[in-house]
Amino acid sequence: MSRTLLAVDGLGKTFASRDRGEPVKAVDDVSFTLDQGETLGLVGESGSGKSTITRCLVGLERPDTGTVTYDGFDVLRAGRDERRRFRREVQLVFQNPYASLNPRMTVEDLVGEQLLVHQGRRSREGRRERVVEVLEMVGLTGAHLPRYPAQFSGGQRQRIAIARALVSEPKVLICDEPVSALDVSVQAQVINLLRAMRRELGLTVLFIAHDLAVVRQLCDRLLVLKDGRVVEEGSREQVYGAPAHEYTRALLAAVPIPDPAADRARRRHYQESR
């Protein structure tokens, strides 16, 4: 039986309205678990609460209600040592590789910075060896160490961001829309890389996205979010094969298919299943 690494129970977050109207409930009583070795997809349109959940998980926002438990301890009430362990073992890959990498830092410093934070006892040479090792994992080389982010394509920058997340040997990777800022041709390369890293390193992955076609390639189980609430949860086969909620069916019907005849048949299928 799989061990639960991350458990979210009754998570809620409300923001004040910009126009001083009614407060906005961004996340409303969200609960889910993430088991060891699993890839869970968190899916929904813009404004569904995906990013707010992510920010609450990693401590960038404080939820109003609910608990976040990692490997048996309460993350929101953790002591210093437990918080340090959580930050080392749970790493985040951001959406935009153009914004998430400091343009004034070299690749060696960008990736190696995590080792200074989490494994400060390593020598400079030891850090460099580990940085080269993880760069090679993601399809880059030691020759890229002295270069700056501006010297790389979008896909290469996201590989650097993934290397930075992997260098401290985390157990959980939280990917917040990691391919949405990339060209379609590059998206597949990054998805294939994440799939390979999950298999080779035994990673547990929380994958946040709005594109159901992307999620289908990677995730074992899905949660569909709408207006801050979970409206559907199930295995990949259940959600794609027999979606129960009309919102999920609408999202699936909106996924483009190159073949017009197949696209029309798919839309009819989801409309008739309502």
Topology diagram in text:
Layout: E1 4-15, E2 24-35, E3 39-43, H1 50-57, E4 65-70, E5 73-74, H2 80-89, E6 90-93, H3 97-100, H4 107-118, H5 124-137, H6 154-166, E7 172-176, H7 184-201, E8 204-209, H8 212-216, E9 221-226, E10 229-235, H9 236-241, H10 246-253, H11 260-272
Parallel strand pairs: 3-8, 3-9, 6-7, 7-8
Antiparallel strand pairs: 1-2, 1-4, 4-5, 9-10
Helix pairs in contact: 4-5, 4-6, 5-6, 6-7, 10-11
Pfam families: ABC_tran, oligo_HPY
GO molecular function, one term: ATP hydrolysis activity
InterPro entries: AAA+_ATPase, ABC_transp_ATP-bind, ABC_transporter-like_ATP-bd, ABC_transporter-like_CS, Oligopep_ABC_C, P-loop_NTPase, PhnK
Structural notes for this entry:
- Keywords: ATP-binding, Nucleotide-binding, Transport.
- Belongs to the ABC transporter superfamily.
- Residues 6-252 form the ABC transporter domain.
- With 274 residues, the protein is of the alpha/beta class.
- It folds into 2 domains: 4-101 and 170-241, P-loop containing nucleotide triphosphate hydrolases (Rossmann fold, 3-Layer(aba) Sandwich); 245-274, no CATH class.
- The chain has 11 helices and 10 strands.
- The chain has a 6-stranded mixed β-sheet, sandwiched between helices. Strands 2-1-4-5 form a 4-stranded antiparallel β-sheet, with helices on one face.
- A hairpin with a 2-residue loop joins strand 4 (65-70) and strand 5 (73-74).
- Helix 10 (246-253) runs antiparallel to helix 11.
- The protein is globular and about 55 Å long.
